[in-house]
């Protein structure tokens, strides 16, 4: 990718180096492919820099394990074994968050999503991770399962040097407003339109 | 991500299972972020399925190593050591392709791009890999360094079960036409607009 040049230098009293260090709030939205894949790609890149990664999948049924989970957890294991890269935690809804519920015990999705956000909020306050992937988090925001103003306020004023990437369709305008980097993935053409279903290795 | 449902079932004489196995030609284009990151994320996912991965970076100056290269090469090493995942080859232009040129020897970019494409074409004919990432390949196509009709013809009629993802801005309409899945990444908002430069761990 070409080296980017800022189009304007802001009058914020920061040096370029200081500005470069500002932690980012990123949003991947739109109806196209690649929102989560690009977010997990960022996590891979961040792992390589030794960052502490926390992934939180806010999907209704995350019982199936995607390839990125296996690979990122394997990278987290490598970190423990050899010191390469950084630590990785991967949490997902669907069968209960790993920190809150016993196997087999079920909660409704709204409650679970709210619990997930409460945990992320605690971790942000504690500066637990360097990069948070809040995968598909736009949906609990859209469905009223979490308070959007609380989310936006918390993310906008998170302490320290914590990067956050939120994925999912129809990102709330208030979230877009406080984000530093918003990318919309738009479907131009998709094989499902001609009747081809999802494929192992590509879709999961 | 929600499970996709095809909107129409084509009358192509294939069963759903057969159609599901059709190898995909994918294009990530547009001016936004995430084109390459999502492609490398696909490679991570494919590695986890045991696929043979070939990455070809058609960038003018690929002397710097991005995090994904380190991680994917590390995963390729894991494959050799433990049998996990699949094999990985990562090739890049800039200081000469690894298969063609001695260290320090330079070719002009147009020649190098054409050599890169000729090698990819040989590998496609030999069914060398399961997934090809042709990173930033839209640029040599746009600049006339490779013959677009040759590229389109070769990719459209590649033998066997080989997946290809092409990234870069301004994808040629002929490429889009033969692709199965085209995603446009659109910049909605970018921190560079407010004078923040690229960041380690995020941009590379």
UniProtKB/TrEMBL annotation, chains A, B:
Would I find Hydrolase among this entry's keywords?
Answer: no
Query: Example GO molecular function term?
Result: ATP binding
Question: One biological process GO term for this chain?
Answer: cobalamin biosynthetic process
Cite the SUPFAM superfamilies for this sequence: P-loop containing nucleoside triphosphate hydrolases (SSF52540)
Q: Which UniProt keywords apply?
A: Transferase
The residue ranges crossing the membrane are none
InterPro entries listed in its UniProt record: CblAdoTrfase_CobA (IPR003724), P-loop_NTPase (IPR027417)
Record's keyword annotation contains Ligase: no
E.C. number(s) listed in UniProt? 2.5.1.17
CDD domains xrefs = CobA_ACA (cd00561)
The name this protein carries in UniProt is Cob(I)yrinic acid a,c-diamide adenosyltransferase
């Amino acid at each position: 990718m070409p080296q980017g040049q800022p189009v304007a230098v802001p009058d914020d009293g920061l040096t370029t180096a200081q500005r470069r260090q500002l932690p980012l709030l990123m949003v991947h939205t739109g109806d196209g492919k690649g929102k989560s894949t690009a977010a997990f790609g960022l996590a891979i890149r961040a792992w390589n820099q030794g960052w502490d990664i926390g992934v939180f999948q806010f999907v209704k049924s995350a019982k199936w394990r995607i390839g990125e989970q296996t690979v990122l957890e394997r990278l987290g294991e490598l970190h423990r074994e050899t010191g390469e890269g950084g630590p990785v935690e991967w949490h997902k809804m669907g069968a209960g968050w790993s920190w809150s519920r016993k196997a087999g015990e079920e909660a409704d999705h709204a409650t679970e999503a709210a619990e997930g956000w409460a945990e992320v909020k605690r971790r942000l306050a504690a500066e637990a991770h360097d990069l948070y992937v809040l995968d598909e988090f736009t949906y609990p925001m859209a469905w009223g399962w979490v308070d959007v103003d609380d989310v936006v306020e918390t993310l906008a004023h998170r302490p320290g040097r914590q990067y956050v990437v939120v994925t999912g369709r129809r990102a709330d305008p208030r979230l877009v407003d406080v984000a530093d980097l918003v990318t919309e993935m738009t479907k131009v053409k998709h094989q499902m339109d001609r009747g081809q279903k999802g494929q192992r290795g590509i879709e999961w």
